[in-house]
Amino acid sequence: MLPPVEELKDALEQLLPGVSLTLDAGWLIVAPNDLVAVCRCLKESERFSLDYLANLTAVDYLPEHLPAASEASASGAAQAGRMDVVYHLYSMAKKHGPVMLKVRLSRAHPVVASVTPIWRGAEFQEREVYDLFGVTFEGHPDLRRILMWDGFEGHPMRRDYVVEDQDVLEGRPG
Amino acid sequence: MEPRIDTAPRVETQTLEVNLGPQHPSTHGVFRMIATLDGETVVKLKPVMGYMHRNHEKIGEGLTYIGCFPYTDRLDYFCAMTNNLGLAIAIEKLAGLQASERGEYLRVIMAELTRLVNHTAVTGFLLNDMGAFGTPLLYAFREREKILDLFEAASGSRMMCNYVRPGGVREDVPEGWLARAREIVANYPRFLDEFEKLLTKNEIVQQRTKQVGVLPRALAVNAGITGPMLRASGVNYDIRKVDGYSLYPKFSFKVPLGTVGDVYDRYYVRILEMRESLKILQQALKEIPGGPAISPKGQAVSRAPRTFRPPKGAEAYGRVEAPKGELGFYLVSDGTPQPYRYHIRAPSFINLTVLEDLCLGHKIADAIIILGSIDIVLGEVDIRVESGEIVGKSLVTYMVLQPRAELAKA
Q1: Can you identify the CATH homologous superfamily of domain A5-159?
Q2: Model pTM?
């Protein structure tokens, strides 16, 4: 069985000196620079063996949408909004999970290391996030648009992207 | 003596780039592959997708949570019921809702009927891809039609069911529905036997599928492959068992596993999965209790979607074992009636990651059946838990396919 997330955090910090993690409502918040080390450790250590990356996606927070609880921790970033990349990890070998990781990036220059070398399953999902959110994954073997066509401008899943035929959708009140 | 002039032509070969799709019957929709061939052998293959992309996730952000349901029907349009179920489970996790007991039973029944529909159809299509045009597919469609009639009777639509809701199902099944369902379930094994007689030991099927498109176990896990494709490679991972969502822990069924991971195993795992689904259906149809088909809270949410406002900052990832693999919904709430973020983890999309690996070194004709055996639906490709505690190892029962030698003897 997987330990509760608090213990998991302590265990990871012991295994990886110099890495500091924060907790937020069940999520492990990883610094962008530590991501690869943490992921490698979670996958390769016998105890966790999180060999399966189930879900990888991003959430775009405009400044006004930042959850109140984390505004203090993100301090300066709160002005410019934030781009979260989220990872849901499971273990097929031990049949436990999920471990949920979040990386918080600046909205203006979202760059993070690719986890495709660790889990092939990230390959298309990172391309999707790159395509729709404009997050750059460094070290991805083949980072191209996947759903939109080459030459498309902008990233349609960003919150400030203007949809052409807005009147077709139910408008958000206010 | 004059020098001898070699008149034999020098053979030079060069690779050829062939474009397949997006309008081509073998690509199961608007999927496109760019294959580089050396003779007939695939040396490189790049999938190109997005021809049916309509940014379902963006549309979802402009709708209420309940308003997303009809759109999920159109993801994997063979499996509307399981798509609905995935979203319903994610919403239930987000809001802490409970489903009514009869509602849960009806969901399991619908989900397993969907699995029958999907696996039957994909097997028919696989034969189509092998060159058996029409006939096997129509046998499959004949049976599928019977189940679609059931879906129509319950939900009003054959394929775009929009039936499952948080807390249960939209409305109870009509009178006589359960009896008809029992009849279809009772007769289904006869069809499967007939179908298998036609296919399982068929020499052409075996020649075309064995040792073709082998997916090694380690690669399957690493690439996040799920569903029958993963289990055909011998990995025992079925979310119905692992998460034990809905009522699945109550029913006894096994998880069929392959040994080789080739196209044949993927075909046969699906056949065996159908037989296990029938077992679940028999149990569920026998034990289904009376009572409301939806819990009062779920009813309130479904009837008045704009009153449903999950707390700000709440997040949930709900996943189900859809016929094609892990279907996950990731929801983030900002306290309004509309999801702040609505993400779909589509099995068809991620299962395509290994398409090139499977096709390399095979003939171009095999690439078609390999794609067929992955089982994709473009509506899903282009969109583009508390986990159940495992009690020892007993929750996960499994069986291994008959060894090949025995199969040949039988």
Answers
A1: NADH:ubiquinone oxidoreductase Nqo5 subunit (3.30.460.80)
A2: 0.88
